[in-house]
Amino acid sequence: MIRIRGITFEIPNGYGKYLYEILSDLELNGFNWRIGGGESYKKENNTLGVPLFPSLCTVNGETLSEIISKEEYYLIFVDLKAFENKLDVKEIATYQEFVDSECQFILLVVDSSYVTIYSKNQNIIQQLFSKGVIAGYKNIEYITDENDRNTTLIAF
Q1: What are phi and psi of 95, to 5 degrees?
Q2: Do 109 and 75 touch, CB atoms closer than 8 A?
Q3: How many CB atoms lie within 10 A of CB 132?
Q4: Is residue 31 part of a domain?
């Protein structure tokens, strides 16, 4: 039986609230989110402004939701990892580390457009796949044991 690990797809390369659109149906508040190294900026006067995220920190779901829902931003590299318990928050660099950890969900954005999501919850993967199809994201596909090409689960 083929196991589904996650999904991958492309979002438009431009300003928007793509993280909010992707994550809005998930229960963000139940998690502590590790914000890894990355590069994303708030839109200010139609150009890149201040960084969207504080660097290398952990925020609760309410704070993450507030950050990604308020105003438009430009994503270059994003590394978000969700943990149920703040004490378990740590860097996850490989799929096996993800499996062996308390991390429940990973969202990576690379080169402004390429989104990769891993989740231990198969219902979330199915929900996000359907949502991506409806939203018209390009090249959406499941990540399985057979086709997973990622050697690292760090965006930047």
Answers
A1: -60, -40
A2: yes
A3: 23
A4: yes
Q: Tell me the pTM.
A: 0.93
Residue 83, H or E segment: strand 73-83
d(CA 122, CA 6): 8
| pLDDT digit string, tens, across residues 40-99 | 999 999 999 999 998 888 999 999 999 999 999 999 999 999 998 877 888 889 999 999
Tell me, yes or no, whether 150 lies in a domain.
Answer: no
**Closest to 131 (Cα-Cα) out of 28, 7, 14, 40:** 7
- Whether 25 is in a domain gets the answer yes
Can you tell me the distance from the alpha carbon of 150 to that of 85, in angstroms, rounded to the nearest whole number? Answer: 26
* Cβ contact 98:111 at 8 Å: no
The domain in which residue 73 lies consists of 4-144
